[in-house]
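hey so u asked for the seq, here:
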Amino acid sequence: MRTNQAGIDLIKSFEGLRLTAYKDIGGVLTIGYGHTGKDVYKGQIISKDKAEALLRQDLERFELAVEELLDNAPTTQNQFAAMVSLAYNVGPGNFEKSSVLRYHKSGKYVSAAAAFMMWVNAGKLKKVAGLIRRRNAERKLYVS
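ran it, structure tokens below
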């Protein structure tokens, strides 16, 4: 399954586009649309085309991870896109342990949608406004 345009637009809107490497709220070097990894270094500058390519590359990795974790559970395109956005933001390992995934696989879609709101903290910080907005947008996409 692939992330639909609504999911891509959601990810882009909340990640934002930064063409110069920066440290995110958790202190991780990041560039483009939230791209992280060993290939990101201090002072790095990329083009918008490179940011798009990194996003497509990252999406493939997260889509595969989410699809494998779903284990063939019935999933709509919007549910999938919302879960990929969550995994993109919190990482596949955290997504794997999430109530969102557990409830979804059990067919408890209302509970799964509500569980997005459990992911609104960043590091040692409590409830981050930007994460609350993102989780609400993901939840809205999940139920649409």
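The longest helix spans residues 48-70. The first strand starts at residue 18 and ends at 23.
lmk if thats what u needed
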